[in-house]
Description:
By secondary structure, this protein is an alpha/beta fold. It has a domain at 54-376: TIM Barrel (Alpha-Beta Barrel), CATH 3.20.20. The protein has 12 helices and 21 strands. The chain has helices at 75-84, 102-113, 134-143, 164-176, 188-200, 207-211, 215-232, 244-255, 266-270, 298-306, 346-356, 362-376; strands spanning 5-8, 11-13, 18-20, 22-26, 29-34, 42-45, 50-53, 55-60, 65-66, 69-70, 87-95, 120-126, 148-152, 180-184, 236-238, 260-264, 312-313, 394-404, 423-433, 436-440, 443-444. The strands form 4 sheets. Strands 8-11-12-13-14-15-16-17 form an 8-stranded parallel sheet. A 7-stranded mixed sheet has the order 3-2-7-18-19-20-21. It has a 4-stranded mixed sheet with strand order 5-4-1-6, with no helix packed on it. Strand 4 (22-26) and strand 5 form a beta hairpin. Helix 3 (134-143) packs parallel to helix 4 and helix 7 (215-232) runs parallel beside helix 8 (244-255). The longest helix is centred in the middle third of the chain and has 18 residues, at 215-232. The two termini are 34 Å apart. Bound molecules: zinc ion (ZN). Zinc ion (ZN) binds next to loops. Zinc ion (ZN) is lined by residues 59, 61, 316, 318.
Amino acid sequence: MELDLIVKGGTVVTGNDIYRADVGVAGGKVAALGVDLGTTPRIVNALGKYVLPGAIDVHTHLEMPFMGTYTADDFRTGTAAAAAGGITTVVDWAIQEPGESLFATLEKWDKKAAGKTVIDYSFHVVLTDLSRNALDEIKDVVRNGIGSFKCFMAYKGTPLMQTDSNLFRIMRRVRDAGALFCVHAENGDIIDVLVREYVAQGRLAPIYHADTRPPEVEAEATARAIALAEIARCPLLMVHLSAKEALQKVREARDRGLPIHAETCPHYLSLHYEELERPDFEGAKFVCSPPLRRRDNTPHLWSGLREENLQEISSDHCAFNWKLQKELGRDSFANIPNGIAGIETMIPVVFSEGVRGGRLTLNQFVRLTSTNSARLFGLYPEKGTIAVGSDADLVVFDPDRKVTVTRELLHQNVDHTPYEGFSVTGWPAVTISRGEVVFENGQIVGRPGRGRFVKRRATTSV
Ligand SMILES: [Zn+2]
């Protein structure tokens, strides 16, 4: 067989296996696994390194309008930074504007991505308005390869927040279409009351963003979403679960056999509430929703990951510059755009804290960052594993490279990283997307626009 490229001398790690093998690539697919695969025009040296399936980030916000501004990374810079961080597929949230059809929303996101992406991509749809025929469109959207939807239970006073009746109506249609429903679970009514009180009392610093969104508002909304999904008999995934109290609700539901899934994000595993207290408005860099939790919360999330009550880790990359964007909230935390930049640092941070920190096995790490996301979001087995016939989305990962994270090192188009000065062990050396090297020697070499839109199957099995 004619091979185009061989990844040579590495240790292949999948969700289940660890073994020494060379990986032969032909036509963008994995074509052979073994030794002595012959010669090719291109050899990628993986000696002393792991060869991982490319990570799948199912939670990104690229060029997203929010609070009167746009996220700083678009599909060009965001997917380039993803490639540099060992990610080979992103699934971005396409947000319906009120009055817009779901297909018009998807067209808008197609335009944002067209000609720009360095790696493969897909979208989910966020529903905000059922006044036209959005409910009827759901099944056709699923037929077009978009098998997941989301609603917000927070952000009162904006079109994002949905009532229980809307959630329930959407869940039934999503269930009928065989798709997966996702939810941002925080009780927006309670947050609204607390924010008004804090603002009236003149408590305006970034830390109060966290104090007005306590763990209980996440736990309440999580429990309510699970109850609604149980009545609607709809598979559910809690995005960016942050609090142990919410995890407990997911655990109880899963113990009862309900199809409830959950995601967490690298910042909830590695950064804490105290960061928001940094002086001179620096705390604003850490404003995201749900907020960073206290230090004693984190071990519970690692336990949730180990027992796979949390099934996947995604970045929730939602980058806003500190200057001019986060600064919109200088006078009040209520006006700080919510979001943390983390697409490029996700894999090193989770590997370092998880695997090097003795909290996850290597196989668990691959399942949580790639295989489970592929299965939950209808990308498996083309993505999420290394097997003959799967896409040659591969990361040659150096488990021993020590890096101190700085803004200058990264490719994200944002003026800071929340991980400035953070030490990690383990860093991507080479990223390969469908058989093409897109990142090596610290440089992004993949051409913007080479990434393909991936149609996803409606599936919810892990
Ligand atoms: Zn998000």
